[in-house]
Write a structure and sequence with these properties.
With 159 residues, this protein is mainly beta. The chain is 6% helix and 41% strand.
Length: 159
């Protein structure tokens, strides 16, 4: 029986940052190869943190903690100005590998738009977004998303 291949350490890449309703910075990450679904996080960096803050599961530093976990290939995050709920835009439910497979086939999997709160998460506009760009709220609290970034780009108002 052959030996198992070495364990691969995945690296996290920050993909987005936003200021939360509490003044803290929130950073979304895309976890690297093998891009396991559910392995990405949103980190909260204390607004009063000083010095080099390190957000890491293995070696956390003061001033940074996990705000939300169990997410997949985060593309963008934003807080609703009305409800203060976190919205997360993900590349695809099955992660970055599924998304990258779309380059070969021309069939990109649907993006995932979630609300994340204390009492769980819910998916919005299921199956309606693909090739996500970003999300943002207007001053009046309306949510907008961009998608189709590798083709016919769109700006959509999400109800």
């Amino acid at each position: 029986m052959g030996a198992f291949p070495p364990t691969l350490t995945t690296e996290a890449v920050p993909t987005t940052v936003t200021v939360g309703p509490d003044g803290a910075l929130y950073v979304g990450e895309l976890k690297g190869f093998p891009f396991r679904p559910g392995s990405s996080r949103v980190w909260r960096i204390d607004p009063h943190a000083q010095g080099g803050v390190l957000c890491s599961v293995n070696t956390p530093s003061r001033g940074c903690k996990t705000y939300a976990k169990g997410l997949t290939s985060i593309q963008d995050i934003a807080f609703s100005p009305n409800t203060h709920r976190l919205f997360v835009l993900e590349l695809a439910k099955d992660g970055a590998l599924a998304f990258e497979a779309g380059f070969e086939t021309g069939e990109f999997p649907p993006a995932v738009l979630l609300t994340v709160g204390r009492h769980g998460r819910s998916e919005l506009v299921k199956g309606k977004l693909s090739q996500p760009g970003g999300i943002a709220f207007s001053r009046s609290g309306k949510l907008y998303a961009t998608d189709g970034v590798f083709g016919n780009g769109r700006l959509l108002r999400i109800s």
